[in-house]
Amino acid sequence: MLLALLLLAGLDYAFPPPVPGRDAPNALLIVARDGTPLRAFPDRDHVWRHPVALEDVSPLYLQSLERYEDRWFRWHPGVNPLALARAAWQWAWHGRIVSGGSTLTIQVARIIEPTPRTLAGKARQILRALQLELHYSKDEILAIYVNYAPMGGVLEGVEAASRAYLGKPAKRLSHADAALLTVLPQAPSRLRPDRQPARARVARDKVLQRMAGVWPDAEIKDALQEPIIAQTIRDPLLAPLLAERLRKEALGQLRIDTTIDAQAQQTVELLLSSRLAALPPRVSMAAMVVDNETLEVRAYAGSADFGDVDRFAFVDMVRASRSPGSTLKPFLYGLALDEGLIHSESLLADVPQSFGGYQPGNFQQSFHGAVSVSEALAKSLNVPAVEVLDRLEPNRFVAALRRGGLKLDFPKGETPNLSVILGGAGTTLEQLVGAYTSFARQGVSGKPRYTPEAPLVEQRMLSPGAAFIIRDVLESGGPVGRAVEQGPGIRRGIAWKTGTSFGFRDAWSIGVSDRLTVGVWIGRPDGTPNPGFFGANIAAPLLVDIFDALDHQPATTRVPPPSVQQEKICWPLGTRFDPAEESLCHRQALAWVLNGTAPPTFPDRLRNGEVRYSYEVDAVSGLRVTPECSSRPRRGVEAVRWPAALEPWLSADVRQKAQTPAWDTKCQAKGEPEAGLRIVGLTSGEVLKRPRPDQPPVIRLELRGHRGQVYWLINGRVVAHRSAAMPLIHRLEETGRVDITVMDDQGRYDRLTVSVR
Fold it and tell me: What is the pTM of this model?
């Protein structure tokens, strides 16, 4: 006996039973957070299998399975001697196999290691069944059956069959459903409910009748009345590119649970699909939805239509590096707030300017003159953004983004420069969405999570105060852009930003609500331009539709962090309003101030000297005088200068406040009367043509109405600072529009525009 036991133990060690998932071909299933299949990757035999735990299977199915297939399953050692004896007697009496005497354990043995239907094959199955009982518990054996039982066609396992035929998870099976799926493995092809509903019903009813005494009679009676209705087997195809991505990262897994919300995913895909007819050929779309609290991805659409090869269906644009256009501007202004460079209403100059030879223009090719940070961000103005980046420095900006989790890609050998804020680098929709979550998470950005077990990766992008201010500006335009609401908090909806890359190659829109962050990209994956496609007209409407469909929570009341206060500030100084110096406040605004800091306006880039200055006027007439030319009583006046580049753009009322009074008649030698300045030599609107393609035109301009020093600017760049008596001779190297401005220290100016062809 001892030798026999040792022999059996040796055989068991030498010939262990195969284990599904280790020795059997593997299939992989990607599922949504509620278990809905997103995509099924068959094994090498093209079998679909949906792994499921016993606790996720309806108790009704487990009851009918054990009752119908092997009522003594919980008690026998893998083989039922009485059932085998009955099968042997029936075989001897009828001369053929009438019943196999198989237990559930023997069926599992046959599933994991198919054998011929012979006596030798049956003997091998019995030995394997005994082995299985030695190695595994009853529930483990039952779990193998539940996951690997043949269910017709390419389906294996109760979960795959339930999803494919009945359109529901195995956890929600009814009495009739449980009976149907119990009997199906007996003859999977002959009893397929989608092809043989009549046969399937007869077999199902046999199981239902066998359940008498286990299930209530009323339930059995109702189940017998149900027709067999099965849907056609279809390959699940939700979030296909995410599923492909996770499949490549899977290491021997049979099932990957994701954070995707199946209903949200289907909604996003339908919204993308509904726009296809209005898009030119080969244009694709991508969208991503992230839960702000958990950073879990709720929807992921990497292409417009996974079935449309002409639209680059298999190119995942969530992960593709593209020019982000203006979508980085909120981070620029947020970081400048944290650096103490600006407040929400700091004065910026949206006028033609040159930054070391770099001359940015706005999307609409127009300029707005004096603008605040809030207005510059809300209108996505380019020149003010470059002005702020010039003060912050491109290298510091890019490094700060990287620390916050947003990595920018540069061409090999290139380094950050001022163009980075207008899209002169690359990043992905995935990284942008992760970075934008910081506006709803107290300035902390995060890496989007695709599976529940993925670690929570967070980085500090902005301070809570800076994040609050930027979000408020993106939602409403800031304190000046809306009427201030009553109460301690501010009620808001969606903060969003659009972006368009150079040549209309990429259209972006990223938005943040209390609950979700949504990102949209539209363009051609091959980088071909799409004239007329920009973020505001093509990507933003889709973004709003996604929010409308997925985010039904009302906007909450948000209280500014302790570091944020509202203060009255003044232009052109940019500092707090001081009632004692009201004359120096040419324009007031209500600003968000961070950490109690109201920094002054940036230093004048064109004109040296102090912003504040003083002069004297006649005490009676108010005309300007000096001690040398007037002996009458005088009084001193404190005044402030606007940035030189802005003076030609000031409104009449502001210019009136900013300009010094005219000189007294006795002091006219000190300056010109207020006749103003006038450029002569060209007329505004003139078209200049090159004599030859390689010969730029040369202009000669003179000035009338002034004798002192003046500044000559071409397209915002100072080209000369000289006496008004000296003409300007300049070669116009570039074609297109040319803005020519002359101004003096009093803020007087003249300007004209010509074209070079």
Answer: 0.81
